[in-house]
Write a structure and sequence with these properties.
Blueprint lengths: L21 E6 L2 H19 L2 E6 L3 H11 L6 E5 H9 L20 H4 L9 E14 L11 H4 L9 E4 L5 H8 L7 H5 L2 H12 L5 E4 L4 H7 L5 E5 H10 L4 E16 L7 H11 L2 H7 L6 E2 L33 E2 L2 H20 L2
Parallel strand pairs: 1-2, 1-3, 5-6, 5-7, 8-10
Antiparallel strand pairs: 3-8, 4-7, 4-8, 4-9
Length: 358
């Protein structure tokens, strides 16, 4: 058996070359990458003898694009957001995988019927359903904490700094929902100049109280360090901080924005065949269910749901912490990859200009 190599490092351009016996998998770090190491990497190495080198990134999608444009691809598999998966595929920067390459579910269900709607494209295979929601430090609000997305923007009723991801995606949607726009109308509203103005005006209302985070692991750390009283975050990060680390944090699901994360294989990946075998293994029924033992993200296969039970502590039921739990979906928004593929550049420009303004 070849020795498993897990190398977690800050992503600075991947200035290294994996050996012939390695594949390099790039993901988002922290508790999320740990869940992948335990559920995917170690079992894959045990089954195939292929080493997995794990590299952390604040956002793997742009790194794939940078390597493709430079003609120096060292990534074999990357975990990316849906809009990046679509854009990179459209630009010819990803290898084709496709539904036909994927194994059936453990119950025999064909892959095309087992994966959740829209979770497999020509070039990408989803692993999880995750959400951006927010959490707060319960010790900051002994008389009762926030319960709605509007409360996140109410610094009079709930004082304290707010943590926000340093990008427009999810922030603009949450701002509109906090301002009274129904979830079903968010993208229709955000697709107009007036709607964009409305979202930024809502962000203006807390701008002086915002502490920005850029990597997923930073959000719960801001809470733990007392730098903010509440923060948006990826739901699994908040779960890990509260349940695994015992922090006094509580999640608020109202106004959550949920979406898929997907595995892709960059065009010209050094170990393409092994990379595709890894993707097939990692998105199998059991592997996806096993990841849910380590972090509160919902598996992208229907056949995995029945196999999701307790957290790896053996006592915490995972169901209530999943974004797709019915109780958590009462006022939830599915992120529109079509919208972000079409509007990403202009809204990022607007967001950066807003950041720079006084």
């Amino acid at each position: 058996m070849k020795k498993l190599l897990i190398l977690t490092t800050a992503l600075t351009g991947f200035g290294f070359a994996a050996s012939a016996e390695d594949i390099t998998v790039v993901s988002w770090g922290g508790a999320y990458t740990k869940s992948q190491v335990e559920a995917y990497h170690k079992p894959f190495t045990a089954k195939t003898g292929i080493n997995v080198t794990s590299v952390d990134s604040d956002n793997p999608g742009p790194q794939v694009k940078t390597q493709e444009e430079a003609g120096n691809v060292t990534i074999d598999v990357a975990d990316v957001e849906y809009s990046d998966a679509v854009r990179l595929c459209d630009e010819g920067m990803l290898e084709t995988i496709g539904m036909d390459a994927l194994p059936p579910g453990a119950d025999g269900t064909p892959a095309k019927d087992d994966f959740l709607p829209g979770s497999v494209t020509d070039c990408a295979v989803a692993t999880i359903v995750f959400s951006t929601n927010y959490g707060y430090d319960t010790t900051k609000f002994p008389n009762g904490g926030p319960t709605t997305i509007a409360d996140f923007f109410d610094t009079k009723k709930f004082p304290g700094k707010r943590g926000l991801g340093k990008r427009p995606k999810a922030n603009l949607e949450m701002a509109l929902m906090a301002d009274g726009v129904p979830a079903a109308d968010v993208y229709k509203t955000l697709g107009t100049p007036e709607g964009v103005d409305r979202a930024f005006k809502k962000l203006d209302s807390i701008k002086k109280d915002i502490v920005w985070w850029e990597a997923g692991a930073q959000a719960p750390q801001l809470l733990a360090d007392g730098e903010v009283s509440m923060t948006t975050a990826y739901n699994g990060r908040l779960f890990s901080a509260a349940i695994a680390d015992g922090k006094p944090f509580k999640q608020v699901w109202d106004g959550q924005v949920y979406e898929y994360d997907l595995f892709v294989v960059p065009k010209g990946a050094p170990h393409k065949d092994a990379a595709i075998e890894f993707v097939k293994f990692a998105t199998s029924t059991q592997a996806l269910a096993d990841q849910a033992k380590w972090i509160a993200y919902g598996p992208a296969r229907k056949s995995s749901a029945a196999l999701v039970g307790k957290f790896n502590d053996g006592k915490t039921d995972m169901g209530p912490y999943m974004p797709t739990n019915p109780e958590n979906m009462k006022n939830a928004l599915g992120s529109s990859y079509e919208f972000w593929v079409d509007h990403d550049a202009e809204l990022n420009d607007r967001f950066n200009a807003w950041l720079a303004a006084n």
